[in-house]
Every structure is written in C-alpha cells, then in structure tokens.
Amino acid sequence: MANLAFIGLGVMGYPMAGHLARAGHSVCVYNRTISKSNAWVAEHGGWSAATPAEAARSAEVVFACVGNDDDVRAVTIGEHGAFAEMTSGSVFVDHTTASADVARELAGHAAVSGIGFVDAPVSGGQAGAENGKLTIMAGGAETDYARIEPLIAAYARASRLMGPSGAGQLTKMVNQICIAGLVEALAEGLHFATRAGLDPAAVIEVISKGAAQSWQMENRYKTMIEGKYDFGFAVDWMRKDLAICLAEAKRNGAQLPVTALVDQFYAEVQKAGGGRLDTSSLLTRYEKH
Asked: How many domains, the chain?
C-alpha cells in the first residue's frame, strides 16, 4: 500500500480520494475549505494538511483535481505548492480538466526536480467518481503511468496512456467536443418530437435501440422531458471546457463550427441563470419558444 496525497475535494475529488482510502492506501488530503477536509477525514480516516506542500511531503504519488489552469499552477508551483516538498522519484497526477499547455509547462517544472507528471483528466461525472467507474485519459511518460495505473484503478473502469505530456488533456477535449454535439442533438430531437405531436419518451425508447443511441440519450432523456436539471455536470464547467477546446483549435488549425455554436447556446443558458444546471439544460432554450 502506498503513501498518497489528494489535493482538491470537490464533487469529483472527494469520492476519488475516498476510493483510494478504501483500497487500503494511506491518504493525506488538502482542500482550500478546511471543513471539507475535516469531513473527509472523519469519513475515511487518514489526515488533512494545511497546504498542498504539507500534504505532498511524504507522498509517493500526489493526486489533484481542482478547477482550472491557474488552480493547478497554484497547488503545484505556487506558494506552498506541492512540488516544493515532493521527493525525486515521486509522481504528480493531475485529474483537472485543463489545457494541454499547462500540462506541458508543469511537466517541465516537475522534470527539473526529478518528479514525474501525468495529466489525467477524467470522464464520467460525479456519478462515475462516486461509483468508481471513471474513464481516464492520460499523458506522460510510460514509466510514470505504469506506477499510477494500479492506483487509479480504485476509481476507474478504464484508463489509457494516450501519449506524452498534454495528450491526456487533448483527448479530454475530444471527449467534450463530442458530448457538446450529442447533447445539442438530443435537445433538438426531443424538441422536434414534441412539436410533431409524438410521445418523446416513446420515441427515445425506440431510437435508443438503434444507431442514434448514446450515453447522453440513455441517461438524460427522462430528466430532460421532466424539466429536471439541478444535478450533473454544470453548464459553467462545460463552458470552461469548451473554451479550452476552442483555444486549442485556434492554435492547431482544427475547425469546430458546431462546438462554437453549442458554446454560444450554453452562453444563453448561463445568461438566463442556468450556469449551475446540468448540460442537458440546452433543451430549455427551445421550451421558451
């Protein structure tokens, strides 16, 4: 069993760290809101640290799941960041959905100190984190990935090394591009079915058995029909992710016209006060007309 640290106990990090503790590892946690760290320790054991550096001090592997590029920099190379206390040969695993640029940047910083760095964004949402069924796409050195693969198995049903530093983040961008298009198509399909006088639930039950099937269709159509969106992956988070996708596309020359359009549709949902609603709330745009 390993000495581990986990930085960031949000809706994803909290259960992910819990799976590591249940697997028998010694886990030290850090969270900006101390009460969250205290609650985690009360539930799972282990201990909490006052700073990322303190959490990382004796850890063989340090995991993080925070908000954005700046947050990742803060907990790694910022004041009291983890890199300052990590020992040569240890590995930092970043589960944050961030840019490929920051992954490459921090991998460079880590290498100077003999630290491994793996960018490992996840897919599966809060339910996937809680049930230990996340999908993880990783970027980094094969030797570093080989060390962490048995550990992330505690909360992942699938994981794969996609290439060098940044490749995990680039793969997650593809994931978000595909999801954005699927959710918009599902919203349009349900809207069309209703306007056509069809029973939308019956329509989905039929077409989901054919080529139109998707995770979004299977898991979101009922709540969309019921107008329930107070759960799941928030519009605010999706817009953050799509901004990363569109910025990367501008750099590499990829054309993402549908993604850009769906991003603007999400902006409309935000403007209407739906920033914390699930991404399936795209349907609300059509219900107003």
From this structure: 2
87 & 158 share domain: yes
Catalytic-labelled residue, pool 172, 222, 240, 288: 172
Task: Count Cα neighbours of 108 within 13 Å in the Cβ-side half-sphere.
Answer: 8
- Do residues 186 and 153 share a domain? no
- Domain of residue 249 covers 171-287
CATH number of the domain that residue 192 is part of = 1.10.1040.10
pTM strictly above 0.85 = yes
Q: Which long-range contacts (CB under 8 A, 24 or more apart) does 100-104 make?
A: 100/139, 100/166, 100/167, 100/169, 100/170, 100/173, 100/248, 101/69, 101/166, 102/69, 102/72, 102/73, 103/139, 103/165, 103/166, 103/168, 103/169, 104/165, 104/166
Question: What's the rounded Cα separation, in Å, for the pair 275 and 280?
Answer: 12
- Which of residues 147, 164, 181 is at a domain's end? 164
User: Is residue 222 annotated as a catalytic residue, yes or no?
Assistant: no
Residues 63 and 153 in one domain: yes
Q: Which of 113, 146, 164 is the last residue of a domain?
A: 164
Query: Over its length of 289 residues, how does the chain's per-residue pLDDT go in tens digits?
Result: 899 999 999 999 999 999 999 999 999 999 999 999 999 999 999 999 999 999 999 999 999 999 999 999 999 999 999 999 999 999 999 999 999 999 999 999 999 999 999 999 999 999 999 999 999 999 999 999 999 999 999 999 999 999 999 999 999 999 999 999 999 999 999 999 999 999 999 999 999 999 999 999 999 999 999 999 999 999 999 999 999 999 999 999 999 999 999 999 999 999 999 999 999 999 999 987 5
Residues 220 and 254 both lie in one domain: yes
